[in-house]
Inverse folding.
């Protein structure tokens, strides 16, 4: 399931993780028959054993700098509701942020918001390469392989990435509750925003609290845009999904929104003769 580039890459993968660490990528509902492919890049706050705690406190390691709290739980519920395959990264964004390319300074940050990350300071090129080979490449390879396998089976793929964001960032409160993000292809995002226009449940906004100019649409850029796949990135304010009740409400809302939006797009295509 995991993409490898060469024998050197395979060696890096086998020496990077301990047996108790396990594999870097998880796939759930692999036989899902839904056209949506869910991806959660920041699903976990777990660190590979070799890195200890990166010099960070438990509070920092539990915070949004390490992962997207609640995002995986919501994505798992959506996977069941939509019979969608889910791919997620099993290790923290602190080691490598799989929603950033290797050349991005945000891929391996030494400072995140107000937190200094001692274990990421002054990384050598060899260390950056090791992290890229061990975490980023298998993750991107798993997504690429899944899309290719679905195509070979004659299945459509709609790529949906699921994230959460902190309600307070650099001391500023964020009013937006759910962000519907897109890059150059806004077809699905536009349909979702239209479907959500009448809701009183959440404050839903376009390209908020981030947008493509912030470099957050990397997964969509790599896997959806070149192939013309419908795609969207979903951001949920993490205080709204801090418990099972909130996670369930958000998953129900988003699954319904996606169903309605996909049906509307299919109807439009049928009416236009596409």
């Amino acid at each position: 399931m995991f993409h490898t580039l060469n024998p050197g890459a395979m060696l890096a993968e086998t020496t990077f993780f301990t047996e108790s660490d396990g594999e870097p990528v998880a796939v759930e509902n692999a036989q899902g028959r839904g056209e949506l492919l869910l991806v959660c890049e920041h699903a976990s706050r777990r660190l590979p054993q070799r890195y200890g705690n990166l010099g960070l406190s438990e509070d920092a390691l539990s915070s949004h700098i390490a992962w997207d709290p609640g995002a995986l739980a919501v994505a798992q519920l959506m996977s069941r509701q939509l019979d969608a395959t889910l791919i997620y990264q099993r290790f923290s964004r602190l080691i490598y942020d799989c929603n950033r390319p290797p050349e991005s300074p945000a891929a391996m940050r030494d400072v995140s918001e107000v937190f200094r990350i001692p274990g990421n300071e002054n990384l050598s090129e060899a260390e950056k390469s090791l992290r890229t080979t061990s975490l980023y490449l298998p993750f991107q390879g798993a997504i690429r392989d899944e899309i290719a396998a679905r195509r070979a089976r004659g299945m459509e793929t709609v790529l949906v990435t699921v994230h959460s964001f902190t309600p307070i960032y650099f001391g500023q409160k964020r009013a937006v509750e759910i962000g519907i993000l897109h890059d150059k292809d806004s077809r699905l995002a536009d349909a979702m925003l239209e479907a959500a226009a009448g809701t009183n449940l959440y404050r839903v906004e376009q390209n908020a609290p981030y947008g493509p100019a912030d470099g957050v649409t990397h997964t969509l850029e790599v896997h959806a845009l070149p192939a013309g796949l419908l795609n969207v990135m979903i951001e949920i304010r993490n205080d709204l999904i801090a418990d099972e009740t909130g996670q369930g409400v958000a998953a129900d809302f988003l699954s319904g929104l996606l169903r309605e939006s996909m049906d509307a797009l299919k109807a439009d295509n049928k009416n236009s003769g596409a």
In short: Residues 30 and 85 are 5 Å apart (CA to CA). The chain has one domain: 7-267. Residues 1-13 have pLDDT under 50 and may be disordered.
